[in-house]
Specification:
With 82 residues, this protein is of the alpha+beta class. The protein is built from 4 helices and 4 strands; from the N terminus they run H-E-H-E-H-E-H-E. The radius of gyration is 11 Å and the shape is globular.
Length: 82
Amino acid sequence: MSYEKVAQAKEIIVGTKQAVKALKTGHVLEVVIAEDADPKVTAKVVQAAIDLNVPVNKVDSMKKLGKSCGIDVGAAAVAIIQ
């Protein structure tokens, strides 16, 4: 489900650091986290989303998440922008 949501989103931000920055701007509708990513890497994104009451959805694979974003490498976190 979330893979399709990412693929169909008009604007996304890929990566943990960029997702945290985007969350701070207040324009993020939802964050998608790959469960096979290192929790140390995704912890800041998840915490920022929780602090700002932004929904966090999880998917099983970094590789599939990256593919949904149109990139050839895995993605640990993706922010879907308004």
